[in-house]
Design a protein that fits this description.
By secondary structure, the protein is of the alpha+beta class. The protein has 26 helices and 28 strands. It binds one RNA strand through α6, β7, β11, α10 and α19.
RNA sequence: GCCGAAGUGGUGGAAUGGCAGACACGACGGUCUCAAACACCGUUGAGGGAGACCUCAUGGGGGUUCGACUCCCCCCUUCGGCACCA
């Protein structure tokens, strides 16, 4: 509830999901379709700040409006008995419980790290929540800060999260994006000893085969070892450089096109392969969070190192053979090794293993895998979230709140504004902060940060079927019956946030023995965005379309159906109400067809087409192609109109009954009304989905397409089961085809029975 | 730079190697009406032809195939994602 109300994107998504739910139910599946409110978090809180109303009051108001004035009208079959609101104590009690489980398992840890800070939301953010260098919520440029924060060790699950993708029925797009985000890289960690000291600098590389070409070492400016290495003569320059790097934004620092900067520390390291003395530099093109925060620079075979070496006049050695050489640019491709001692002549691929093994024997290297994925920064210096259930004791350190004391209630505060001091508004609530240590009973203080909203939403699917229990987060039997989720309709924006976090939390709970499965969503389909004039809808653009007006004007069925008719569900669709009239006309025609006095029965018609339409609608709904399902329904209703007077009474009844049933998932209200008027009783949504007779699908005649040299020349109605000779005879007799044949002998004839005859001359 | 999706009439889109443009919108013509709206009927990719019909046409260029919107290669454009990730 982060806005005044829902927009048409919600109507679109929920309409599609509900159409699928109703369709599945009519096909005999037991369907659970829940809806709830992700009410905690920055999104709601920022809205409350803008309205200057305490989020507690505002959330109560908005959720009421969403539920009764909006969601209640779109005709979705939500089970409101099993709704959740993440900001209610009976929900966040269990969010806190999950935090405690992770803490006990050593997966929730407090550590100092370079983290993302949003200067507008005045809180830290997880890496996933920084979009193109900007805050996911407010769009402000994010800055880096060294802070002590709570993290979930999602990186420990990197391989599982990656490997698990293979088994999932998810769109390739989302699997690829998650895989790229996890960013597994295989290589080696090599050790460069520091000259004249016991210090050792481990570096990560994916190219251990090029170690003989490593002519200098570069440390990230934040690397802990830098102050210890820097010589007195270089200290002023290096300190100034570190200071300027710290002041720069992530965007500035990670712009690959920018000219390289750096400073020499005055210290030297020893190349473990050559034994050569190589200078140690600091430069911000090396990132402290990735690998070891240090690299061996191989300017001959890495573009960044090449640019750096050229600028600062550092030696460049060629160790991989290539046709192009390294006179003008680094050569980054494969080749044979040169200038590499006993490895000369070996291919770079073979050398990767061989060189690593050789260095490993000497204790200066080992194979290593690293990831782009970073640990999930979970704490927020904000008010509107579940307090992190930890107590800080001077004796016992960070102690989890005992489970029987959960929830740690979020206190009501006079001022909920973020402070900007690096502490949550809760820090100023003395009655909240002051407590006793659960271990020793001595005076202690509560953690005052709240947890990330994405933790609230990382487990709600476990709670939905179990809302009647207050003494457990989820019930084992109920869970086993309903989960994992069979079908998840999600937005693309969730792929490397919510979907990733939900998988992680599910895996952890599985490993701790709480869940019988480790993947939460068996089947996932991404829906597109509804745009307006080609742009994402937003208040600032002033292009937000409110569904309420349309629902008032044409009814929720027509509006829902229209949104689905706009285009493929998984693609972005631009909203314009120009075509809305097409769907309302269609539904008006259906209405008249059913409610107008029946015409005098005719002598009867061939009912086979009805079976074909049933099949088409079923198939299209089965693959979530709602727009083509509606097109098929339009054709079907047109077919009924055309034959309305020819039907005998029984046929007409059957045709109309089928139409009503096929419409039920798409226009639930209308179908119910029409069903009642046919004497169907309550409810159309509890009827069986119409079945088609396969025998009726098979055609009695086919349209034989006749081509000459692949060009269409004639279409001939022909009986089914025609053999090639008969087909050729038929084609030869055609006045359109005969002139082309003109006594010539075909070089080749392709006959696809029942479809096509292609004569190649 | 890397990864992904897409490019088809005036418009939204359909067609998963076999009839390109289903279904709609819009436009044009007509019926109904004093008139309008609604509704209904017809036409509607482009070019040629009196006409039956013919030719061209799915971002551009090549290829595979009897046959390509569909598969392969190269290129262009748009949109998303990732990005000094060693």
């Amino acid at each position: 509830p982060s806005a005044e109300g829902l927009h048409i994107g919600h109507t679109y998504t929920y309409g599609g999901a509900d159409t699928n739910g109703r369709f599945q139910r009519m096909r005999g599946n037991t369907v659970f379709e829940p809806m709830g409110f992700d009410a905690f978090g920055i999104h709601s809180e920022n809205y409350a700040l803008k309205q200057n109303i305490n989020p507690m009051q505002l959330t109560a108001r908005t959720t009421k409006r969403y539920r009764y004035e909006q969601l209640g009208r779109i005709g979705a079959m939500y089970d409101w008995e099993h709704s959740v609101d993440t900001s209610q104590p009976n929900y966040y009690k269990w969010t806190q419980w999950i935090f405690v489980q992770l803490f006990k398992a050593g997966l929730a840890i407090r550590k100092e790290a370079a983290v993302n800070w949003c200067p507008s939301c005045l809180t830290v953010l997880a890496n996933e929540q920084v979009i193109d260098g900007h805050c996911e919520r407010c769009g402000t440029l994010v800055v880096q800060r060294e802070l002590t924060q709570w993290f979930f060790s999602i990186t420990k699950y990197a391989d599982r999260l990656l490997d698990g993708l293979q088994k999932l029925d998810w769109p390739d797009e989302s699997k690829t994006r998650q895989a790229n985000w996890i960013g597994r890289s295989e290589g080696a960690e090599l050790v460069f000893a520091v000259e004249g000291s016991d210090e050792r600098i481990p570096v990560f590389t994916t190219r251990p085969d090029t170690v003989f070409g490593a002519t200098y070492v570069v440390l990230a400016p934040e690397h802990k070892i830098v102050p210890r290495l820097t010589t007195a003569a270089r200290r002023a320059e290096v300190d100034a450089y570190i200071e300027s790097a710290r002041a720069a934004t992530e965007i500035e620092r990670t712009d690959a096109g920018r000219e390289k900067t750096g400073e020499f520390t005055g210290a030297y390291a020893i190349n473990p392969a050559t034994g050569a003395r190589v200078p140690i530099w600091v430069a911000d093109y090396v990132l402290v969070q990735y690998g070891t925060g240090a690299i061996m620079a191989v300017p001959g075979h890495d573009e960044r190192d090449y640019a750096f070496a050229r600028k600062f006049d550092l030696p460049i050695v060629e160790v991989i053979t290539s046709e192009v050489g390294i006179a003008d640019a680094a050569y980054t491709g494969p080749g044979a090794l040169k200038n590499s001692g006993q490895f000369d002549g070996l291919s770079s691929d073979e050398a990767k293993t061989a060189v690593t093994a050789w260095l490993a024997e000497r204790g200066t290297g080992e194979p290593r895998v690293t990831y782009k994925l970073r640990d999930w920064l979970i704490s927020r210096q904000r008010y509107w979230g579940p307090p992190i259930p930890i107590i800080h004791c001077p004796e016992h350190g960070s102690v989890p709140v005992p489970e029987e004391d959960l929830p740690v209630l979020l206190p009501e505060v006079a001022d909920f504004h973020p402070t900007g001091t690096g502490k949550s508004p809760l820090a100023s609530v003395e009655s909240f902060v002051k407590t006793t240590c659960p271990v020793c009973g001595g005076p202690a203080e509560r953690e005052t940060d709240v947890s990330d909203t994405f933790l609230d939403s990382a487990w709600y699917f476990l709670r939905y079927p179990c809302t009647e229990w207050d003494d457990r987060p989820f019930d084992k039997e109920r869970i086993a019956e309903w989960l994992p989720v069979d079908m998840y309709f999600g937005g693309k924006e969730h792929v490397v946030m919510h979907h990733l976090y939900a998988r992680f939390i599910t895996m952890v709970l599985h490993d701790l023995g709480h869940l019988p499965f480790e993947e939460p969503f068996k089947k996932l389909r991404l829906h597109g965005f509804v745009t307006k004039d080609g742009a994402k809808m937003s208040k600032s653009r002033g292009n937000v379309v409110n569904p309420d007006d349309y629902i008032k004007r044409v009814g929720s069925d027509a509006f829902r159906a229209y949104l689905l008719f706009m285009g493929p569900f998984d693609q972005d669709n631009d909203f314009s109400d120009q075509n809305l009239v097409g769907v309302t006309r269609f539904l008006d025609r259906v209405w008249r067809l059913v409610t107008d006095p029946a015409p005098t029965p005719g002598t009867g018609v061939e009912l086979r087409p009805m079976h074909r339409y049933i099949k088409r609608v079923t198939d299209e709904l089965g693959r979530y192609q709602f727009h083509t399902a509606i097109a098929a329904l339009m054709e079907y209703s047109n077919w009924i109109s055309t034959h309305n007077e020819a039907f005998n009474a029984e046929q007409r009844r059957e045709a109309i009954r089928t139409l009503t049933l096929l419409l039920a998932p798409i226009t639930p209200f209308l179908a119910e009304e029409l069903w009642e008027r046919q004497g169907g009783g309550y409810s159309v949504h509890q009827q069986d989905w119409p079945t088609f007779d396969p025998a009726q699908i098979v055609d009695e005649t086919v349209t034989l397409v006749v081509q000459i040299n692949g060009k269409l020349r004639d279409r001939i109605e022909a009986p089914v089961g025609l053999d090639e000779a008969a087909a050729r005879a038929l084609a030869g007799a055609s006045t359109k085809v005969a002139p082309f044949l003109d006594g010539k002998t075909p070089k080749k004839v392709i006959y696809v029975p029942g479809r096509l005859l292609n004569i190649v001359l």
